Known about the structure:
Helices cover 80% and strands 0% of the residues. By secondary structure, it is an all-alpha fold. It has one domain. Helix 1 (3-25) crosses helix 2 (30-50). The mean pLDDT is 93.
Amino acid sequence: MSKNDMREYNELxxxxxxxxxxxxxxxxxxxxVNASLMSxxxxxxxxxAAGDDGGLTDSGIEKVVEVYKVNLENVQKYKAEHANGEG
Length: 87
């Protein structure tokens, strides 16, 4: 990903986090905010791969799960680096 693409990616992610925090600040339980954000992401991942009326096959689900796993691992790496003052 280019530097500009990474910047835009981070800005988009920040917008989702801001929206989630607004929901939390409205008094919504954070576990519900998290679950609804994940559900929305699942719907959008399905839409991205299969269109409005399509669905994922088992192999498609596994591909999406792997992408989520890699992203989650990257977030944990980022958090660990920044917690230790490395980033």
